[in-house]
Amino acid sequence: MDVAPVPLWAVCVLRVALATVYFQEEFLDGERWRNRWVQSTNDSQFGHFRLSSGKFYGHKEKDKGLQTTQNGRFYAISARFKPFSNKGKTLVIQYTVKHEQKMDCGGGYIKIFPADVDQKNLNGKSQYYIMFGPDICGFDIKKVHVILHFKNQYHSNKKSIRCKVDGFTHLYALVLRPDLTYEVKIDGQSIESGDIEYDWNLTSLKKMEKFSAESKDGDQAQDDKSQDWEKHFLDASANKPSDWNSKLDGDWQAPMLQKPPYQGGLKPEGIDKDVWLHQKLKNTNYLTEYDLSEFENIGAIGLELWQVRSGTIFDNFLITDDEAYADNFGKATWGETKGPEREMDAIQAKEEVKKAREEDEEELLMGKFGGQENSFQRFHRRDEF
């Protein structure tokens, strides 16, 4: 019996239905955003936000977002949502940021907080789980921060990820996967990816903790053996010699061979991965430490940053467990307005050039007539004398 193929639209609908959206904010209901976002009162000098689509935009209503309004200020504002854990799940954090003022020095990043964060007292010392987004200051700093909280410390991605520096709206997305891989996207394009354990320099931290725990147990001999297994593996193909006498020669053990590096999921030729990892997993809690990107009590998102010149607009916030949903949401928001935004900016630029040219011509014309009038007056004055 022939089975009719499932329509693509049905697959898309099913995919969206399976996605879990923890937080989504587009600021489409006017000033009601103030009921969802809490301005910190920790410092009376904190800058204030307003809802604005800026001087140029792709859609006047859809492009409205939180805009910084005061120069030389710290900003602190946040929104709460139902707490969740991303353990064993993909975590996608996405939003748009527009440095309409052509940022010279200031942050455009967001922070993800534990559910128990004190929103009214939010400040630079408030603990966060994740800090993600662009940071610009002068010629040296033009980077995308990706900072994770692990073992009571903040750890930055060791790779240099360059951010966008123009005045247009850009879509930033961070993907943390349960297999300890990650991806950073700008405008829907992957610009960096890799392994969380290695790209955050956490391997040395975990190794140090592992050896420390084993030392506390007093099993130094086992620790040495574990380190030995870091460099060697058992020759699984070796067999006990036929003339081996256990009473005279002792228990037979397969010889140890030099171990090539095992990285990136690639299996070294001739080596069984299970054999290579066996002793390591037997004597350590390696697998239980796979919490480099797992956060148990995620419950708030916020902007906590400094700006020299204000004018940045933050919009289209999304936190979900589904990469496809995030991609589609980005296309339906930023994807629909990015073109018209640039068109409006180009039209305004042409109008400004035209206006400047007209003003220059008017000044030149006035200067010319003014010069003739002055010469005429000087001529008659000379005749009078």
TrEMBL record:
Its main location: endoplasmic reticulum. InterPro entries: Calret/calnex, Calret/calnex_CS, Calreticulin, Calreticulin/calnexin_P_dom_sf, ConA-like_dom_sf. One of its GO terms (molecular function) is calcium ion binding. One of its GO terms (biological process) is protein folding. Residues 1-19 form the signal peptide. It comes from the Eukaryota. The keyword Repeat applies. Disulfide bonds join 105-137. GO terms for cellular component: endoplasmic reticulum lumen; endoplasmic reticulum membrane. The keyword Zinc-finger does not apply. An alpha-D-glucoside binds at residues 109, 111, 128, 135, 304. It is found in: Endoplasmic reticulum lumen. Keywords: Chaperone, Differentiation, Disulfide bond, Endoplasmic reticulum, Glycoprotein, Repeat, Signal, Spermatogenesis. Belongs to the calreticulin family. Component of an EIF2 complex at least composed of CELF1/CUGBP1, CALR, CALR3, EIF2S1, EIF2S2, HSP90B1 and HSPA5. This is Calreticulin-3. The gene is Calr3.
